[in-house]
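Input chain follows. Return structure tokens only.
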Amino acid sequence: MPRNINWDETGKRFYETGVDRGVLYRKQVDGSYKHGVAWNGLTNVSENPTGAEPNPIYADNIKYLNLLSVEESEGTIEAYTYPDEFSECDGTAELTTGVLVGQQPRKTFGLAYRTKIGNDVDGEDHGYKLHLLYGALAAPSEKSYQTINDSPEAVTFSWDYTTTPVEIEGMKPSAIVVIDSTKVDSAKLAALEAILYGVDAVEGRLPLPDEVLSIIESDAPSAVALSSSVPVDEATDVAIDSTVVLTFNNAIMSESISMVDELGDPVAFAKSWDSESKVLTLTPSSNLDNNVTYIVTVAGVVDVYSQALATESINFTTVAL
């Protein structure tokens, strides 16, 4: 039976409003978007697509068809302030600490931000849309300063931007991806947001559209596991200048991994993750001692799907003198 058309049903009076949780990502030489930083004071993001204009073709004395020009994604960003990392995107370079010079090459950037979805039942808490912007290049813009008076106003900064689309498998290239929180699985959305915003020592990054799709369309995630370690457990004759490399099967959101020697004394080390937050490298601050057993305790590991890994240990012994 066909469903009757009804207007203004309860719970279906939707609207969109607001903009928040802005995050800036600078494009890297390998095409990735890393080092996400919060964009505080974001007041407006306008998406103003251009192009897609019809070019009529006539034949047989009639309009035969319309050819559309390429659609371009452009827009405007407005804010009361901007992160220091945006300076290079705005054509500003730092000569030395606190000394800036303008009219420099502008860096390409990516942006993530949210808009609220409201309805007549939940108000603005019904849901949100997550907007991901790629390949953006800011144009020079006016900065206007005026004296403080009896009606003071904060300076508003504004940038027009253009974009270069990125590849999407099975689709035409695009510079914009939008995720609707009311229509995707909440656990998968949380996994995507953990990547976007970063957790603990793992910096936020902007995944490309194909990775976003793989996260949203993925089946139920595998239980988090430590796939491998270098050195392996019970290894001997390990070089004293070795690093410890731990590989997990899922992207990791948080951990509290530690390392001690056979007497229980802690070993200081630096941590670094790969771009997918699956491979953790522990680099000791100095060479290890010869002929000593070290214990790496893999604890507090939680993946982006909020799955916890049971604590386990890896023991290895360094080479003798």
